[in-house]
Write a structure and sequence with these properties.
The complex is a heterodimer of chains A (329) and B (283).
Chain A lengths: L15 H10 L2 H29 L1 H7 L9 E2 L4 E2 L2 H32 L2 H16 L2 H28 L14 H25 L3 H9 L4 H12 L1 H17 L2 H6 L17 H8 L6 H41 L1
Antiparallel strand pairs in A: 1-2
Helix pairs in contact in A: 2-13, 3-13, 4-7, 4-10, 4-12, 5-7, 6-7, 7-10, 8-9, 10-13, 12-13
Chain B lengths: L2 H42 L2 H5 L13 H32 L2 H16 L2 H13 L7 H25 L3 H9 L4 H12 L1 H16 L3 H4 L19 H9 L4 H30 L8
Helix pairs in contact in B: 1-12, 3-6, 3-9, 4-6, 5-6, 6-9, 7-8, 9-12, 11-12
The chains are: A mainly alpha (329), B mainly alpha (283).
Chain lengths: 329, 283
């Protein structure tokens, strides 16, 4: 960066205070300080956020300790709070969404990066970007009025008939539940997987493909055995990003998961998620402990997404740089 | 051609077709969503939707005028709060800072960007609602503004950095101070990118619902000033969609159509601004 070479030379070898004043007269030092205040406020807000989550949950953390994550009684009347059903629901719905979204998303990304002509690829990417911009409450709206009836009347009965011997697909078909929430989440996170994976695939150096093709591999073999492994890290990164997004998603999940705090092996069963319980109960928390337990759930969510986002960024940057480095060589 | 080669070619063709199918499915979701909203929302939308207050529970009719105005107020506050911090913070990052400070600010911004919106809601609730003991438009604007900061900051910084070095050096060679260079050369050169960044941040928070549940809350009437709870389009969609009344469902569709239309139009405009060429080619 060229930021250190800007001192006005006319100040010459005079003492530091003089050159400081001359820079001050030009307004540079003032501008620097003012913009610094704005930049610092970003850090301040973030620190405050973490502090608030940490200190706001101190009562709950001390009272329940690790049992908070192991017990499933959530009873505001007797001030007993165990978060297992919410954590379970969050993980299960996110898991279901990845099972659906990962193959679809990576397949689509391969098509966009490897097969489609640049113009088609860019046009489709534009639509994918728009899809990523659709707010979650709209997904919730479509989930409530389209996905839930479809699940109840067609998909869940069909699954029960064919795969009903698995504990996953047993029990009454309510429409709402883990599976429905997972499907809605899958639709929401696919654009993230596609955009990031496409970028990473595009950064794979051309000679990798050409080498594989010249050795006689088919187009698919070159893609699947050379290009995709090369981009593996970045694709993992895109999946972590999608997972972080799925874990923290609130509105769409709240609207279709059924809001029933139980741990059930059946994906048809209504459940609850961390974000959903916060959304439903925070403003109506009956006691301080209730409120603090909800904040602790927020803290859990924060830590999960923090770790996943960090990992994702590392993987994506490392993979893209590797591609760039080899491309130049 | 040996059987094995034929098999390999078949697998190749098949799998590549499948990737095309995946892409088709993913993109068609957008048109599916749009189609459904236009179909259901289009039949429910009327002049009343834009001009009337919500009807009392049990009566049909009414509109969401208060939610539209409420969303406007919330977004205005969010922009006033989030954009300056993001914009000036980005100038600091791109032009003044080096090394550690920049790293910390960037790290904080990325962290803030990854925080789920519900957690932002908790934070705004604890900071801007609990101490005053009532929900308010201001608190809602604060929550949305928080979410605008990192998006504005990071993209603005990127666009500022993409301004070629030669432009900076030319301005400085003419004797301009650094601040003068920034305001009269660098920012104008990057303004399309910056405008795009701000518009995208705006569109992103326009549909946010979760942070508003705890801050702006909701209101079935006109909001009495900035210090009072207010209705907003996303929160209304949520409330109306999960309510048991058919007439409310129709209105939820109408509100969904208006909200999504607004967000998609902003997105398209933002991208159009950018693709008409950044004023400066990347060096």
């Amino acid at each position: 960066m060229a930021t250190t070479t800007t001192t006005v030379p006319s100040a010459g070898p005079v003492a530091g205070s003089r050159s400081f004043l001359s820079r001050l007269r030009d307004g540079d030092e003032i501008a620097r300080m003012i913009t610094f205040l704005f930049a610092a406020s970003v850090v301040l807000v973030t620190v405050l956020l973490v502090l608030e989550l940490w200190q706001g949950s101190v009562l709950a953390r001390h009272k329940f300790g690790f049992n908070f994550f192991r017990t499933s009684v959530w009873d505001p009347i007797f001030d007993q709070f165990g978060a297992l059903p919410f954590i379970y629901g969050t993980l299960v719905t996110a898991g279901v969404s990845l099972v659906i979204a990962v193959p679809l998303g990576i397949g689509a990304a391969i098509f966009l990066a490897e097969l489609a002509p640049a113009r088609v690829s860019d046009a489709l990417e534009f639509f994918i970007d728009l899809l990523a911009a659709v707010p979650s409450v709209i997904y919730g709206l479509l989930g409530v009025f389209i996905v839930v009836p479809l699940m109840r009347d067609y998909l869940q009965p069909a699954l029960k008939k064919t795969l009903g011997f698995l504990p996953l697909f047993q029990g009454p078909a309510y429409g709402v539940g883990f599976l429905t929430a997972g499907i809605v989440l899958a639709i929401m996170v696919i654009p993230y997987i596609i955009s990031v994976s496409r970028e990473v695939l595009l950064s794979v150096p051309r000679d990798q493909r050409e080498a594989a093709l010249s050795l006689g591999s088919t187009r698919w073999e070159a893609t699947w055995k050379v290009v995709v492994p090369f981009a593996r890290g970045g694709i993992m990164g895109s999946i972590f990003l999608a997972l972080a997004r799925a874990l923290g998603e609130t509105m769409a999940v709240t609207m279709v998961i059924g809001n029933n705090p139980i741990v059930s092996a059946s994906l048809f069963s209504p459940g609850y998620s961390i974000a959903a319980v916060i959304a439903n109960e925070l403003t109506e928390a009956t006691s301080n402990l209730h409120y603090q337990s909800l904040i602790e759930l927020g803290l859990v969510l924060f830590i999960l997404t923090f770790v996943l986002n960090g990992l994702a960024r590392l993987l994506i940057v490392a993979t893209s740089q590797r591609g760039a480095g080899m491309g130049n060589a | 051609m040996s059987a094995r080669l034929r098999w390999r070619k078949f697998v190749s063709g098949f799998m590549l077709t499948m990737t095309g199918v995946c892409a088709l499915i993913s993109v068609s979701v957008l048109f599916f969503i749009l189609g459904y909203l236009v179909y259901h929302g289009g039949t429910s939308i009327s002049w009343n939707f834009f001009t009337k207050l919500p009807a009392p529970v049990g009566e049909t009719g009414g509109g969401m005028a208060n939610a539209i105005v409420g969303s406007g107020k919330l977004l205005l506050l969010a922009t006033l709060f989030g954009v300056p911090i993001g914009f000036f913070g980005a100038i600091y990052l791109a032009e003044f800072s080096g090394g550690t400070t920049a790293f910390i600010v960037r790290y904080a911004a990325d962290l803030l960007n990854g925080v789920p919106s519900i957690v932002i809601g908790i934070f705004a609730y604890a900071l801007a609602v609990l101490p005053f003991k009532h929900f308010s438009t201001l608190a809602g604007g604060f929550a949305l503004g928080l979410m605008m900061i990192p998006i504005t900051l990071r993209s603005t910084e990127e666009f500022l950095r993409s301004v070629p070095k030669a432009l900076r050096e030319a301005a400085m060679a003419l004797g301009a101070s650094k601040w003068k260079t920034i305001t009269s050369v660098i920012v104008p050169a990057a303004y399309r990118g910056i405008l795009t960044a701000i518009l995208l941040a705006f569109a992103r928070v326009a549909g946010e619902t979760a942070p508003l549940l705890f801050t702006a809350f909701g209101n079935r009437f006109w909001s009495n000033g900035w210090n009072q709870p207010t209705a907003s389009l996303p929160a209304m969609i949520y409330t109306y969609a999960i309510a048991p009344y058919d007439d409310w469902h129709r209105q939820a569709w109408a509100a969904g159509l208006v909200l999504l239309g607004l967000i998609l139009i902003i997105n398209i405009v933002a991208r159009a601004i950018l693709s008409r060429g950044i004023a400066v080619p990347r060096a």
